[in-house]
Structure formats: structure tokens, C-alpha cells
Design the sequence.
């Protein structure tokens, strides 16, 4: 909106996608010069400035690079769009999610496509309020398409698009008390994929929490 200035920070480990995209003729023809200049600036210098708006990408391991964001910088909106937890558990660990929660303003929102119990449970332990993203009508087989996490409770009268999110249902709350809710742990912030996944598997084996299959059976869930 007019009068709103944007401060954008990005955490990204791989520069190849933006390099390949900008070298592709069809990609370049699909975007305006404005967008291409933005992407080119981010690729070449990791920074972008336009009037009062500016952005910066910190290239490297997000677990380390998040430490380079000044402590006073807090975010109104965080998009968590890493590859799925089994593919990239480093960015879904309880420790990393806690860091993200700490970077939110009091009115800020963290939004992710993940509805996984492990992720929601970690966000909840980080002191955040949880909400479920409601599927489109054509996605009726889905019970949720993602999660919103906030420091303060969302008020319907203060929000637009209230038909797109809701409080967690009884089914979703119960999901957070199953084996699926065992978190991904990365206490040193340096664990590799196999180490983090194996640590979670061992914790699940030792846990007395109800199985996720029993939860699915109870609620008639196939997905």
C-alpha cells in the first residue's frame, strides 16, 4: 500500500536457481524489466534498494546466517518455505523454529505450507499461537494446507481473508499428542540430514505417545 516501506531479508543456501533462471530466455521473457532488475541485483550483490524499500539475501546455511540478522530487526511476516522436513530437517528443527519465533514482532505472523504435527508442536512450545490454513473448495480431501503461527492471538475482526484460516480443530490438536509430534532436534545447529532424522527415529521408538496410525484411524484420515 502507499506509504508502506518494505524491508526484506532472505536466507538461501543455493545461488544456482537464480543464476540458471536469469540465463533462460523464456524465463526472462516472462517477467518485466522491473522484476528482472530486482533478481539481477539480488544475484550480483545480494541486495536490492528502491526508494525506502530494500532487501538482502544472506547466502549460506540459514542456521548460521540467521545469526547475522541484527538482533533489533524483527519481522511482521516470515515465510518458511524450506523443502519438506524429511528432505531438509535442518530448517524444521525445534531449535531453528524457536529462533524464527523470536524474530517475530508482537503482531507478526509466521506462515508455512507445513501442517506436520512435529512442526506445529515445536512452534507451540516456542510460545506461539497456531492456526490452520483452510483448503480451497476443490481441495476437499485436504484437512489443512498449512499453518500460521503468531505471538498474539488473531482476532477475526482485525483480519482480512478470515475464510482462509481457523483455530486448530480437535482432530488437529490431538495430532500434536501423537508420535508424529516428536520434534526434529538439532542442538548444535550443525547436524546433517541423517543425524537429525536418526535422532528423531530413536526418540520416537522410546516414546509412549499414541501412534499416528491410531490417530488416523480414529479420525478417518487417509492423508
Sequence:
Amino acid at each position: 500500500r502507499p506509504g508502506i516501506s518494505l524491508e526484506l531479508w532472505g536466507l538461501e543456501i543455493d545461488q544456482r536457481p537464480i543464476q540458471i533462471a536469469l540465463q533462460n530466455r523464456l524465463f526472462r521473457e516472462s517477467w518485466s524489466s522491473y522484476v528482472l532488475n530486482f533478481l539481477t541485483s539480488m544475484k550480483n550483490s545480494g541486495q536490492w534498494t528502491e526508494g525506502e524499500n530494500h532487501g538482502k539475501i544472506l547466502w549460506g546455511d540459514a542456521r548460521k546466517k540467521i545469526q547475522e540478522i541484527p538482533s533489533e530487526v524483527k519481522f511482521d511476516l516470515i515465510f518458511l518455505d524450506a523443502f519438506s522436513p524429511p528432505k531438509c530437517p535442518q530448517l524444521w528443527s525445534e531449535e531453528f523454529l524457536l529462533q524464527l519465533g523470536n524474530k517475530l514482532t508482537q503482531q507478526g505472523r509466521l506462515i508455512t505450507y507445513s501442517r506436520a504435527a512435529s512442526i506445529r508442536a515445536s512452534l507451540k512450545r516456542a510460545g506461539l499461537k497456531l492456526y490452520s490454513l483452510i483448503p480451497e473448495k476443490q481441495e476437499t480431501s485436504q484437512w489443512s494446507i498449512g499453518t500460521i503461527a503468531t505471538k498474539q492471538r488473531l482476532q477475526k475482526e482485525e483480519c482480512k481473508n478470515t475464510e482462509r484460516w481457523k483455530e486448530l480443530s480437535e482432530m488437529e490438536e490431538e495430532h500434536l499428542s501423537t508420535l508424529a509430534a516428536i520434534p526434529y532436534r538439532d542442538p548444535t545447529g550443525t547436524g546433517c540430514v541423517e543425524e537429525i532424522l536418526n535422532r528423531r527415529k530413536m526418540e520416537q521408538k522410546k516414546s509412549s505417545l499414541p501412534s499416528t496410525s491410531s490417530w488416523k484411524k480414529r479420525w478417518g484420515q487417509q492423508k
In short: The mean pLDDT is 93. The chain is about 35% helix and 20% strand.
